[in-house]
Amino acid sequence: MMPKDPVTPLTAGQRRCPICDKPSVPRHQPFCSQRCADIDLGRWLKESYRVPTDEPPEDPSGDTEREPE
Ligand SMILES: [Zn+2]
């Protein structure tokens, strides 16, 4: 049985909305509302556009150390 009270106080194991830190609701998990879900989706889409480049770019002029086989 799942409690469907939208104003249920945060209980053990319940997640908080990563956007506004309010208790999440089952309908919009892990968010508290559709708005926060949209916000997170927008952030995610933006992040996907600019891929983080933690790896250094290949240097065609540099010598590449190869592992001995
Ligand atoms: Zn929220």
What does this structure look like?
- The structure is a single chain.
- The protein is mainly α and 69 residues long.
- The protein has a domain at 14-51: Erythroid Transcription Factor GATA-1, Chain A.
- Helix content is 23%, strand content 0%.
- The chain starts with 33 loop residues before the first helix and ends in a 20-residue tail after the last helix.
- The site of zinc ion has 8 residues, from loops.
- Zinc ion binds next to loops.
Question: Which features would summarize this protein structure in a list?
Answer:
69 residues, mainly alpha, Erythroid Transcription Factor GATA-1, Chain A, 1 helix, binds zinc ion
Shape: elongated
Tally of DSSP β-strands: 0
Low-confidence runs: none
| CATH fold-level label of one domain | Erythroid Transcription Factor GATA-1, Chain A
Class of secondary structure makeup: mainly alpha
Tell me the radius of gyration.
21 Å
**Into which percentage range does the β-strand content fall?**
under 5%
Provide a count of the helices.
1
Could you tell me the mean pLDDT?
80
Bound molecules: zinc ion
The profile of the biggest β sheet is: none
Brief overview, please?
The chain is mainly alpha-helical. The chain is built from one helix and no strands.
